[in-house]
Write a structure and sequence with these properties.
By secondary structure, the chain is α+β, with helices and mostly antiparallel strands. Helices cover 35% and strands 20% of the residues. It has a five-stranded mixed sheet with strand order 1-2-3-4-5, sandwiched between helices. One of its GO terms (molecular function) is acyltransferase activity, transferring groups other than amino-acyl groups. This is N-acetyltransferase domain-containing protein.
């Protein structure tokens, strides 16, 4: 059975992959990107409530970055803009599962696009890359959650073919 992934996103040709069809580039985050990543996470009302953008060298962020970086089931990605800054980020985690006939799924977390890059295709580029990567890996699905208080993000994900199929629940600890 083929993986159930959004079909709206175009697949890139081999030529586009090698020459970079978009001036922005997607790469694995480096430790020196951490300040820019935390700033993106805090760049809206919800993020400001829970992130410490003024303390980007907080040991908790450094510890989490190192754990993600060492874990082969995690990828912390950034999109570089034309000036070499970080235009967007997300964390991609591969989750083994007994459901869906033992198929691996990809969990997308912490998607943020800099306000100066919204509406310019940066998020589409990044999520398209994720779908392609997970499809090639053989994942059965890509899943993500978005806060209900972010209606623009919900509309964006729906425009890419993602569907709100479940009600998510969280228990803050």
């Amino acid at each position: 059975m083929a993986p159930q992934v959004p079909t709206v996103l175009p697949r890139r040709t081999d030529e586009e992959r090698t020459r970079g069809a978009n001036p922005a580039s997607i790469r694995t985050a480096r430790r020196e990107d951490l300040g820019a990543i935390v700033a993106l996470l805090a760049d809206d009302d919800l993020g400001r409530q829970r992130e410490a953008a003024d303390s980007m060298t907080d040991p908790a962020y450094l510890r989490a970055f190192d754990q993600i970086d060492r874990d082969p089931r995690n990828e912390l990605l950034v999109v570089d803009d034309e000036e070499g800054g970080v235009a967007a980020t997300l964390q991609l985690t591969y989750v083994p599962s007994l459901t869906h006939r033992g198929g691996e799924r990809a969990q997308v977390e912490g998607v943020r696009v800099a306000s100066s890059h919204r509406g310019k295709g940066t998020g589409h580029l990044l999520l398209g890359w994720v779908v392609e990567r997970t499809r090639e890996r053989g994942c059965r699905m890509v899943q993500l959650t978005a806060d209900k208080r972010r209606p623009d993000a919900l509309r964006f994900y729906e425009s890419l073919g993602f569907e709100a199929t479940h009600e998510g629940m969280k228990l803050r600890l």
